[in-house]
Amino acid sequence: MTNWIAAAFGAACMTMAGMTMTGSAAAQELIVEKKIFELPSFTTQGGRTLKNVRVGWESYGTLNADKSNAILICHFFSGNSHAAGKYAATEAAPGYWDAIIGPGKAIDTNKYFVLSSDTLVNLNTGDPKTTTTGPASTDPDTGKPYALDFPVVTIGDFVNVQKALVESLGISKLALVAGPSMGALQTYEWAASHPGMVAKAMPVIGGAEAEAQLIAWLDVWAAPILVDPNWNKGDYYGKAPPNAGLPKALSVVTLQANHGDWTNGTFGRRAAREGEAPAKALGNKFQVQSILDNAGEARAKVSDANHFLYLIKANQLFAAGGVSLADAATKIKAPLLLITQPKDLVFTADGVERTAETLKKGGVDVTHVLLQGTRGHLDGVISMKQAEGAIRAFLEK
User: Fold this and answer.
1) Does the structure show a pLDDT above 80 at 97?
2) What is the pTM for the complete model shown?
């Protein structure tokens, strides 16, 4: 994979060079191992039973004797389990939340056992460090890729696979469940559907249900794939994949996961190439267009179009606990540390505020902390060190 991390509710990209550890912190840098969890049989919330479900996972820190110090991190739309540390010291960048997970950090791996897993229908099918079951997987009954015969899966299904993993380790209660964007949706789902297993919850840059505006935007994200003739109604395995639609879809997500403060401040109206003014030819691009296109094309090399569409559907369907927001509030027992960015263009400030207020009215203990920055939604991945004090206080409370 490249040194661009696809962040938030899609493939928002940024270089991670500024997030590498230096000085004494580097001496404690986490080196982690990717593992695989297997379920011989898994029944989805829609009632379909899948055989041989496999997801990757990793952990940081040590599980204590009574198994009471476990924290689960749930990843964003285009992410995977790699939340912290490195698989090898030579890697250019650590996991996406390395700023807050590790020895002596806000989520202190000297104290906590932190684990994270890949989801079902994970986007990153071309990444050797990702293991997932989805449309690109081989159906054991046919010996061929599932393609669109794979059942619709939900955020609840993602959580139920995680629950099986957690229970296989002998963990009956999690000290914290946390995650950004789609990880926030999983966090709400954990708190609403399995309240007895969640002591505390930390949803970041996410609301507790997909509102109509978000559902519609997700449809816009998917559109470039659906109009690419090579998508062929999902039947492209062993054939030419939708290599025009998928990169453009990822470019659209990159744009929305950022903010105008970043695009305007970074690129302005500069041409992509000197001497190729956009006014001189239809094909001449502005720099911002070129950067977004390049990011989408790079990300598409390790992504699968059908998996992208299944993730879209799972996010569109989301409502915490499968009920209304008001009803979800009656189910959630854990205190919540809600961390959001007011310039977020994916989970907007008014939508997040509706979540916070509805949960509070339902009796949920909600602490709401705001991040600042120029990246909008993406700040929930790259600017989390701002919330270090709030996270420490929340865990110690």
Assistant:
1) yes
2) 0.93
